[in-house]
Description:
Its cofactor is FAD. This protein is 34% helix and 21% strand. It is of the alpha/beta class. The strands form four sheets. It has a seven-stranded mixed β-sheet. The chain has a five-stranded parallel β-sheet with strand order 10-2-1-11-17, with helices on one face.
Amino acid sequence: xxxxxxxxxxxxxxxxxxxxxxxxxxxxxxxxxxxxxxxxxxxxxxxxxxxxxxxxxxxxxxxxxxxxxxxxxxxxxxxxxxxxxxxxxxxxxxxxxxxxxxxxxxxxxxxxxxxxxxxxxxxxxxxxxxxxxxxxxxxxxxxxxxxxxxxxxxxxxxxxxxxxxxxxxxxxxxxxxxxxxxxxxxxxxxxxxxxxxxxxxxxxxxxxxxxxxxxxxxxxxxxxxxxxxxxxxxxxxxxxxxxxxxxxxxxxxxxxxxxxxxxxxxxxxxxxxxxxxxxxxxxxxxxxxxxxxxxxxxxxxxxxxxxxxxxxxxxxxxxxxxxxxxxxxxxxxxxxxxxxxxxxxxxxxxxxxxxxxxxxxxx
Length: 363
């Protein structure tokens, strides 16, 4: 008899498993994949380059609580991510900052005068109802088309005006020359990789792990008191209200016999090619090698679910499943898929910590 059956061995499952195990609870974690770590799983390829199987994962947070919790299981490579965007045949900083504008238009704006430029180009007179409106009110129609329209269409498979405004609300516009993609207090990657961090987190006498195990086929074979589910909410309920839409990604890895492929960790391609971006892993990990590995990302409607699609009708459908889940005894839904929310890793960790705190209070 296990106190908790946890479905999924990504951040949600692993964090809640560790915290419950430390409370003396017997925990079984099951995952249908053949590895731990969920979408954060990384491994060394044939050339010894540490790569992220499911695309680049850069950890960043303002939460000291979250950072200190994870720091129990890893040391950090203190990396600050930089992104360029390939626009009009030029590689320019992303998010848009003073240098982006100057390089595109051959201007000489400074941090003091760039506000005049944005005031001139942005549309202040529209009501913000969707992702397109959100960008236009910040940078205007032209920069929206150069940086956001094509990228968003590729990533989500629909036009920005069909997406909720929150999709682009999180993209900053800089009035200085700061070219870091994130400005959080804590930024970095686990020094020896995410997989190593997960191994340390799950190393506890009260935690048992079953890989290559689909919850649906084993749930009646295992005795447990409580369930934490981090898979797709609609799948749990056999799609009784219909399927929730997710976006997937196809990854194309390439190892090259050259020391460096591109200037920064990631380059976005909003208007050219079928892929959305190229990431070179050595920038992220700080490894030194005469070879390098890159990954191109192609968004897709089919395949492994990665992102909930933020639209009003999808949220409405999800709320039906949420109501259904709240009627269940001792069953908890966690994570991007379980909560149908587009969350960064730190928020996922925080949600898991909060859930275990609520369970402790309840008991």
